DNA sequence: GGATGAACAGTTTGTTCATCG
DNA sequence: CGATGAACAAACTGTTCATCC
C-alpha cells in the first residue's frame, strides 16, 4: 500500500436513450435475421444491405457490418466458424450461427421497441410540421 | 513569395446522406414552425420540446436548440431581435422572425424528404425483421 | 436565478491501412 | 484480388463553463 496511485476511471457516462435508433443496432437486427435464415458471411450480408436499401440511398460500409458481427459474438448471441469458399481459390470465410436463441430474440425485441419509438417520433414531426 | 508555406486544407469530407435524419435538422424544423407561429424565444422552445416529446423519451439539450437557431440565423432564414421579458427583472430575451419565407419553405421541404426517407427505412426494417 | 452562448469532451461511424490466403 | 479486421479520424451531440442581466 505504499505509494500506489489508483487511477480512477474518469469517463463520465452520457445520456443514452435519446434521439433516434443507432445505426449499429439497426444493422445488428438485420444480421441476426439473416443469420437465423441460413449461413451467410460478412461480405455477402454487406451486399444484401446494398440491395435492400438501394431505394433509400442507404449504404452502410463494411466496417459497420463487421463491428456489428463482432459485438454479437462478444455478447454470446452468435458463434462463428470457418469454411472454405466453394468454387476455387481456397478462400476462407467466416460463417455464423445463432448461439443463444433466447438472447437473440430478446435483443431483437429490444431493437423493435426502439424502432417503434423512432418511427413514432418521426411521424409526430410530420404531423406537427406539415 | 519567399518561403511562404501554404497550408492546404487537409480535411477529407465524408459521405453524408446515409442513415437517418440528423437531430440538428429535426430540431431546426420545429424551430422554424414555432417561429412562423409567433415569437417564442430559445428557452421557451426548449421547454416546448420537452412537452412535445415527453412520451417518446426524447429530450434535446439546450445547446442543440441554440445551435439550431444560430445556424438558421447564419443561413439568413431567420432574424433576431432583443426584447425585455415582461413581468419584472429586465431580463433580456432574443426573439426570432422569419427573414426569408421562401428559404424557410425550401428548407422545410428538404427536411420533409429526409423525414420520409427515414420513416421508410425504419418501416422497412420492421417489415423485414418482424 | 433565467437566458444565452461557446468551449470542451464522449460517442458514433466513415475512411484508411493491414493481414491472410 | 476477396474477405476480414483494426487503427484512425471526422462528424455529431451531450456536458460543462462563461457571461450578462
From TrEMBL, chains A, B:
<dbReference type="Pfam" id="PF02334">
    <property type="entry name" value="RTP"/>
</dbReference>
<dbReference type="GO" id="GO:0003677">
    <property type="term" value="F:DNA binding"/>
</dbReference>
<dbReference type="GO" id="GO:0006274">
    <property type="term" value="P:DNA replication termination"/>
</dbReference>
<dbReference type="InterPro" id="IPR003432">
    <property type="entry name" value="RTP"/>
</dbReference>
<dbReference type="InterPro" id="IPR036388">
    <property type="entry name" value="WH-like_DNA-bd_sf"/>
</dbReference>
<protein>
    <submittedName>
        <fullName>Replication termination protein</fullName>
    </submittedName>
</protein>
<dbReference type="InterPro" id="IPR036390">
    <property type="entry name" value="WH_DNA-bd_sf"/>
</dbReference>
Amino acid at each position: 500500500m505504499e505509494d500506489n496511485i489508483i487511477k480512477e476511471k474518469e469517463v463520465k457516462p452520457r445520456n443514452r436513450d435519446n434521439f433516434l435508433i443507432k445505426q449499429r443496432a439497426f444493422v445488428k437486427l438485420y444480421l441476426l435475421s439473416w443469420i437465423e435464415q441460413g449461413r451467410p458471411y460478412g461480405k455477402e450480408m454487406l451486399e444484401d444491405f446494398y440491395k435492400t436499401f438501394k431505394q433509400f440511398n442507404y449504404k452502410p460500409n463494411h466496417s459497420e457490418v463487421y463491428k456489428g458481427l463482432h459485438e454479437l459474438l462478444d455478447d454470446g448471441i452468435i458463434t462463428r466458424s470457418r469454411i472454405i469458399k466453394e468454387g476455387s481459390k481456397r478462400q476462407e470465410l467466416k460463417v455464423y450461427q445463432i448461439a443463444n436463441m433466447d438472447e437473440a430474440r430478446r435483443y431483437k425485441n429490444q431493437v423493435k421497441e426502439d424502432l417503434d419509438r423512432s418511427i413514432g417520433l418521426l411521424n409526430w414531426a410530420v404531423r406537427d410540421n406539415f
